[in-house]
Design a protein that fits this description.
Elements (H helix, E strand, L loop, with lengths): L2 H19 L9 E3 L5 E3 H17 L4 E4 L3 E3 L5 E9 L1 H5 L6 E8 L2 E9 L4 E6 L5 E2 L2 E2 L13 E3 L7 H11 L8 E2 L3 H8 L5 E4 L4 H4 L2 H6 L4 E3 L14 E4 L5 H9 L6
Parallel strand pairs: 3-5, 11-12, 11-13
Antiparallel strand pairs: 1-2, 3-4, 5-6, 6-7, 7-8, 8-9, 9-10, 13-15, 14-15
């Protein structure tokens, strides 16, 4: 398949997820707890099932990795990585800042990603070698001349261990932390790609949490790495640092180090 074909397929997956999610939004849908205590709903499962049906029909030889239904091993070097609702807590609270994440990995490296917000009808598409688009129009991250001017975001302090939290706060202290954004899950990364946030820093993310974000942000002019500054791949630890202005990378890594070895 060509990259154009992959983007078209990913768009159909996002459309299917939207159709599955919308009837459950602000409906009082029942919640269950997964073994890690995170919430899951019928909407999460219905959206992933809808996407998997399409992939079974159109990309049957590729591997599929989903948050809700695990891994279906394929025979190619390609993997589709699905998070039907990234930000289930926000979804349950009726806040339209959750998203569907769709990524394509080749040999373990993310080459294409989609962030889709079903309720607002917003979609970011990024692919290696191409400009990221928001609803079909190119978007760019913004310049950040000084780290002290940066707006930093993270989903929440409860996702950090005490050790990781200390490193995050060391970085946050170097930014304009009075404007720090808490909450937002994948929507923070979408806002970074569109030039509204400068830094997103998180830990303990799974592959399906971050794989789609990399092509979206990098195609908009930003940079995504682990906390050591190394590019993310299938085996990365889950420590994610996203920057709208790559020129701030060295300073951000130095601040995260906080005088100790990074995670």
């Amino acid at each position: 398949m060509s990259l154009e074909d992959d983007i078209a397929l990913a768009s159909r997956l996002a459309d299917a997820a939207r159709d599955a999610i919308r009837p459950y939004y602000r409906s009082g849908v029942a919640t269950e707890r997964k073994p890690d205590a995170s919430p899951v709903t019928l909407a999460d499962r219905a959206a992933e099932e809808a996407m998997r049906r399409i992939l079974t029909a159109e990309a049957a030889r590729d591997t599929v990795i989903g948050e809700e239904f695990g891994t279906t091993q394929g025979s190619t070097s390609r993997s589709w990585v699905l998070d039907p609702i990234d930000g289930t807590s926000g979804f349950l609270a009726g806040r339209p800042i959750f998203g569907t994440l769709i990524a394509l990995l080749v040999d373990g490296w993310p080459v294409m990603g989609v962030i889709d917000q079903a309720i607002l009808g917003e979609r970011w598409i990024g692919a290696r070698g191409r400009e990221t688009t928001f609803n079909g129009k190119p978007v760019r991250t913004r310049l950040c001349p000084e780290l002290s001017d940066a707006t930093i975001a993270t989903t929440g302090p409860h996702y950090f261990s005490d050790h990781d939290g200390e490193h995050f706060m060391a970085l946050a202290a170097k930014t304009d932390y009075r404007r720090m954004v808490m909450g937002g899950d994948c929507y923070n990364y979408a806002m970074l790609a569109s030039g509204h946030i400068d830094i997103v820093c998180e830990a303990n993310l799974k592959l399906y949490d971050w794989a789609a974000l990399v092509p979206v942000i990098e195609g908009a002019g930003g940079f995504v790495s682990d906390w050591n500054g190394d590019p993310l791949h299938e085996g990365s630890s889950g420590h994610v640092l996203a920057l709208g202005d790559p020129a701030r990378l060295e300073e951000a890594i130095e601040a995260l180090a906080c005088g100790h070895d990074t995670a």
